[in-house]
Write a structure and sequence with these properties.
about 150 residues, alpha+beta, 3-stranded antiparallel beta sheet, globular
């Protein structure tokens, strides 16, 4: 199976779309023979004609374009609520996903737990639920005032 075919299969299993982080987690790179598999996935989705970009870090299959655009209600003139899906909570989800991939303990405020990241709730992505105290010199910060850690 070719590399781009593995990416297509991974996206199909995820409903026709995927973040780069998701693809990096689920695709088996052992037979690819590349030293930079993350960059290879990025190149594949950017250059192959089978994919289109929805948003930063989010790609979908051209074959599923209409269904994906309808699912996320993406149009040129998005209403304010739909813009929120692809702004604050979307980027929170990307940060949580990236932190989880790198093995970090992730956190976000409790008031955001029911916000959507694509078709999941943010609370399904985090690994650490308690507040984190950050020390910088003599200053202490509690993460309750920070969006994503």
């Amino acid at each position: 199976m070719k590399q781009y075919e593995q990416v297509i299969e991974a996206m199909k299993r995820n409903g026709g779309y995927a973040t780069l982080g998701y693809l990096n987690q689920v695709i088996d790179f052992s037979k690819w023979g590349t030293k930079t598999p993350f960059a290879t996935i990025r190149r594949i989705v950017q250059t192959e004609p089978y994919f289109f970009k929805i948003k930063t870090g989010l790609w979908a299959l051209v074959d599923c374009k209409n269904e994906i655009l309808e699912k996320f209600e993406i149009q040129d003139n998005l209403n304010q609520e739909k813009q929120e899906v692809f702004t604050h909570s979307y980027y929170q989800g990307l940060l949580l996903e990236l932190g989880n991939i790198k093995g970090y303990k992730t956190y976000f405020p409790a008031q955001d737990k029911n916000k959507k990241f694509l078709d999941k709730l943010l609370k399904t992505l985090f690994l650490k639920n308690e507040r984190i105290i950050i020390r910088c010199g003599n200053l202490y910060f509690k993460t309750s005032t920070i969006t994503t850690v």
